[in-house]
Amino acid sequence: MNIVVAGHLCLDIIPDWQVGSLSALRPGNMVQVAGLTFATGGTVSNTGIALKRLGFDPVLMGRTGDDYISNIIRDIFRQEGIATDHITCDVGATTSYTVVLNPPGTDRAFIHFPGTNDSFTADDVDLTGLSTGLFHLGYPPLMREMYRADGANLQRIFREAKEGGWITSLDTAMPDPKSEAGQADWQRIFANTLPYVDLFLPSLDELLYMLDREKYYDLQDMRLLVDTTLLDELALRLLKMGTSVVGIKLGDQGFYLRTGSRVRGILGGNWENRQLLSPNFRVQVQGTTGAGDTTIAGFLGGLLLEMGPEKVLTLASGVGACCVETLSATEGVPDLTTVQKRITGGWERVWPTMAHHDWQRGPDGILHGPEDQVH
Question: In which residue ranges of the chain is pLDDT below 70?
């Protein structure tokens, strides 16, 4: 079964900043750093490379220019053993990049150029000649043509993939509230697109921002209690919009899953009407870059192996946990066998505080909600 990962792609340029702080960036000052790291970024890179490291063979679809930045991105993919045949080259355009300013002991700052991501359209997704399987697209809020015209390009991509027999998957990203993407009507975009999306896998803060701006700001100001009741409300709303599986990434609280009845014809009866929460595995966190994307890689990998929902969620949580044990997005992701050995070897989970008392823990560590129809 093929797996395609499409969408946002960029190059992260990361100076090795070991001394000082961002306050040192003043006119006339020079900040000396210890070196420089290049790393690919975006869902195409993070989810794609994680899948490859697990042992799968993803097809990547993104858009770059024909510049030095593009050459570096393509070289990194080749070093990972991933072909770049399906990545569009826009002659004369500048590839997207991000300068990551990460001085010790302070929050990171970013200088981002969207570049060719803003010109990515439905024409950059060509599934012709590929045997059907899983199609995943990520970060439409960071790609201008994905949210313009009420998401017409995004809808077309998923409609054509669905009509072509693919199981479809969508992830989001947090837009700048002051940007064009931040002002887009995401409720309308989701209403247009989700009928063609089988798996919708956003993070909680992104979802609240796009569906309920008041609750999003309450969450930022710590006036909102996040619990499984809120997750259920959001998930049921999305299921009514047309998607079949809702997976919400919860950071240190784990990964929540809610499904309806339509999923039976896509993933089988054991996925129907499920209400689950996968607690995180206990690790020493070094960095959270790529945690969501690699968690999705584990989720999609579990589907490729035709696992049931509990095992898919467990693998997703395991891959995400491996990711955060290193600073980079994918360096910590090992092969599938290594992840599974850690899971079956008694890897401890961290109990989420948001789960109500009526959620029951199964023998595999997965929490089952009161409306979960165990099969």
Answer: 105-108, 375
